[in-house]
Write a structure and sequence with these properties.
Largest sheet: 4 strands, mixed
Mean pLDDT: 90
Radius of gyration: 15 Å
Strand order of the largest sheet: 3-2-1-4
CATH class: Alpha Beta
Oligomer: single chain
Order of helices and strands: HEEEHHHHHE
Structural class: alpha+beta
Shape: globular
Number of helices: 6
Helix content: 40-55%
Number of strands: 4
Length: 165
């Protein structure tokens, strides 16, 4: 089932959330004593992001942060991702990425995304749903998902990723 088109009110709200995170990104730094770090590159628009994380021996993302330069969508996505995943099991990153990617491409709506992730990540989906506005501009999906690709590469022990895979 495809996601419904965005209403004007929802589009405005989503734009405000992205602008807020784009102008004042959260967790814009390198994680102290990180256990993994990966660079992401989107050659189509020039976005570059480096994600670092500290994963506990029990598999919890104790801290997630990023640095980089890019468009407001890329920076906002990295900011929201770092907030959503800090303190969560590392395994949640894959499920949350899948949900965000499908929201961004219009494959699912917010309620369907909540069904994909663990119940305690439902609030995160509500916030991350603002990224779904990029579905109207398919080339921008890569901007929104670049930080997520970088985090997954980091967790998989890879030091680099690109949106051109």
């Amino acid at each position: 089932m495809k996601a419904a088109p965005l209403t004007d009110d929802l589009r405005t709200l989503y734009q405000e959330v992205i602008l807020d995170h784009g102008k004042s990104p959260r967790n814009f730094r390198v994680v102290e004593h990180h256990t993994c770090k990966a660079q992401g590159n989107n050659p189509m628009c020039g976005d570059k992001v480096t994600v670092s994380a500290r994963v506990s021996p029990t598999g919890v993302l104790e801290d997630v942060a990023f640095e980089g330069k890019g468009c407001a969508i890329s920076i906002a996505s990295a900011s929201m991702m770092s907030e959503a995943l800090s303190g969560q099991p590392a395994t949640a990153a894959h499920k949350l990425f899948e949900a965000v990617h499908d929201l961004c491409t219009g494959k699912i709506d917010t309620d369907q995304a909540k069904a994909i992730v663990a119940p305690d990540l439902g609030d995160s989906i509500d916030k991350l749903a603002s990224l779904s506005g990029v579905r109207q501009f398919p080339v921008r999906v890569k901007c929104a998902t670049l930080p997520w690709h970088a985090l997954l590469s980091c967790l998989d022990g890879k030091s680099q990723t690109t949106t051109e895979k």
